[in-house]
Every structure is written in C-alpha cells, then in structure tokens.
Amino acid sequence: MTPDESIAGLPCNLCGGVCVSVLSQRSRSGDPLRTVACRQCGLVWSDPRPHDTRRFYAQDYRLAYKRTHVPRARHVLRAGRVALSRLEKIRPCLQGRMRILDVGSGGGEFAYLLKSLGHEVHGVEPNNGYAAYAATQYGLHVTQGFIGDIDLPPAGYDLITIWHVLEHTDDPGAVLRQLHRALRRGGLLVVEVPNVEAACQSPHNTFHEAHLYNFNAATLSWLAARADLQPCVSEHSADGGNLIAIFRSVNDAATPMPVGLTQRNHERVANRVGAHRPLRYWLSAHPYRRAAGRLARMATEWMQTREPRGARERLDALYASNVQPAASAAHAKKHALWLWVAGAYAAALLLEWLLLDRMLPTGAWGERQALALYLALQSAMVAGVVWVTNMPRTMPQIARLAAWAAPMFALPIFC
Ligand SMILES: [Zn+2]
C-alpha cells in the first residue's frame, strides 16, 4: 500500500471495493470528516459516516442549513427561482399531462410549479416541517419519510426528479434501483448532484457532513447503469459546480465497467480534488462572481419580500411572470448586465467627483497624478466587470463593451 492508500470501513457503493485513497480529513465546518475515493472506480464518500442519517434529515438538516423548520419568505422566493431554472432543465422531458415524482421536495416549490402546469405530482420529503408546509400551503400530495422507506407504485411514474438528494442518501445505488422500479419503461429520471471535481467553491468547502457521497459524471452514470438507467443527457452547470443527468429506464442498461477506465477515473478525481488549492481558487473569478451574485440576490430578495404576502401568492406571482422562460431568461441576463454597466457608471461619476473635483483643488494631488489614478481605477473597474460577467467573448460583445467604456474614460473631459 502507498502512503495515501487506506482500507475503508464501508465498501464502495458502486463497485464494492474497500481499497481507497484519503482525499480530506476535514469538513467545511472544520470538524473531522474523513473523505475517501475508491481506487477501483473513483466514487467518493465519507468514511466513517459523520452522523445518524435518519435523525439528521428528519429534524436537524434544515435547522443546520437555514435555521428554521419551515421556509421563510426569502427562502420561498429563492426556491421559486430555483424551481423555474429546474423547469428549464427538464422542459424537453415534459409532454402532455405526466405523473411526476419529486424526491426531496423540500418546501414544495418545484412540485407546485409542475402541478400548476397541469401535471400530477407526488413529493417525498424527510423533513417533518417542510413536508407539512408543502401539503398545507400548496395542496400538494407529499409523503413524509426517507425515499428508501417509501413504497412507490411499480411503474407508477413517467418522470422522476431528484435534485440534490442522492449525495445525502446512505445507499445511492439502492435508491436508483428503487426509482427504476417506480418508473414506467421508457420513463425518465432527472438527477442533479454537486460535482466533486468542481472548482467554483472554496477548497475548504468541498466536503461536508451532509454529503455522504460525492460524484463525478462517470461514477454517477456507472451507478445509474447498474440500476438499468441509460444515460440520455449528462451536463455540468455553467460554473461546473453541479452535474445534471437524465436517464431513461430500460430493461438492461448494465454493462461491465471497464477496469482501465474506472482506475483512470480514480486518478482523475484524486488529481482534480488535489489540484483545487486556495491560491488557485482566489486567483480565479469564482469567489468574486459568487460574492457579486450573492449581493445582487440579497438586494432583490429584500426588495421583493418587503410587502407581506402568503407563500402561495408569492409563488403564483413569480411563476405567472416567468412561465414563458426563454424570453424571461434572456431578459434577466440583459437586466443583470445593464445593472453592472449602471453600477460602473455610478462608480465612475463618484471617482471623477472625488479625485478630480474635490482633491485637485486642495492641491494634494497634481493634475497628472489624479488623472492617472482615475484612469487606473477605471481600467481596474472595467477589468472587474469583464472578469465577473465573463464577457466579452464575441465581437459584438467587445464592441458593446468599448461603446460603454469609452465615454466613462472620457468623463473628466466632459465634466
Ligand atoms: Zn468503487
């Protein structure tokens, strides 16, 4: 055994292997958490288990994450937006009136959106408070409990969605087999999980107690194939933080996992996790883009939750204005870029006033010094906007950027 090799207490959920390498010894909260990767296939899990899964999800989880047993107004709004983005992801799967199961339905926002589109929806949620809330607020059919304990009707669904749940279960292979049985043949399963190779979060936040398993695209699709789920779509989110995969329920999707490929997958996962270092992270655009996004979100949520409204009324308003999503997504994007440009102009005016109008007359700064500082700060600001928005990428975008940046630089001449 090499120094980083170890024997796991729990066998690999994908291939049964126990020979692992240790990826991390700490969770994101700084507590001890041993995270290992299977040397045969690259599946990653917490070994030993950090908590009593049942108690944790039935009671503590939402409290630990959101400090509440029922969603607050801003949580409803945020979950409503997430529900709309999820609808976009599954839109190609929706045809006619479908029987849909949403596993881990939380406060019920996504299930309610599907129900309002005319589908027959069933939710499953382990948390008592959230399950009851979804049923009473939105009149949803929600079963409270762990997915593994619930009797699902065989071939009872056309579509099953499981968003950010599989990584929390203590036997993801068994859950996928159970969902396969609950799908009619040809039915679709939509799975979203965090991507273990993601570089968009701080390296200290890669592993935490709530995620018992961590996947990359290969381990997720191999695990699904073992449950006779055939991959149709496998994608990463724009920031690389999540994996989304759509599987079709078939009679026999299982193909033996090619040994060379699975071992290379272990190397790939270990290398990617090992290469994700703090310096690299802080030199990337991710932390700044996240911080800017969070600020913008907080401001929007504050504006939109000022007037008291019921959760259902809030979601109805949000969904009514966003149900034609292609147009609204483009609008949101335009709006965001417009906000950045407006912010940059406001900062330019402030700088111009501060440096050139206030400091120049005091004699503290020479004219050239002040102008050079103004131009340097403006350049930094434009670079910041480019970095945060990840634009421009195309010629028209470059032209647009030049068009709005030029007058900003020339501001001292006009004023
Ligand atoms: Zn394995």
Would you give an account of this structure?
The chain is 49% helix and 18% strand. The chain is of the alpha/beta class and 415 residues long. A 7-stranded mixed sheet has the order 7-6-5-8-9-12-11, sandwiched between helices. The protein has a 5-stranded antiparallel sheet with strand order 1-2-3-4-10, with helices on one face. It binds zinc ion.
Number of helices in the DSSP assignment:
14
Query: Under the CATH scheme, which class of the largest domain?
Result: Alpha Beta
Q: What class do helices, strands and sheet pairing give?
A: alpha/beta
The whole-angstrom Rg is 25 Å
Features:
single chain; 415 residues; alpha/beta; Rossmann fold; 2 domains; seven-stranded mixed sheet; five-stranded antiparallel sheet; 49% helix; globular; binds zinc ion
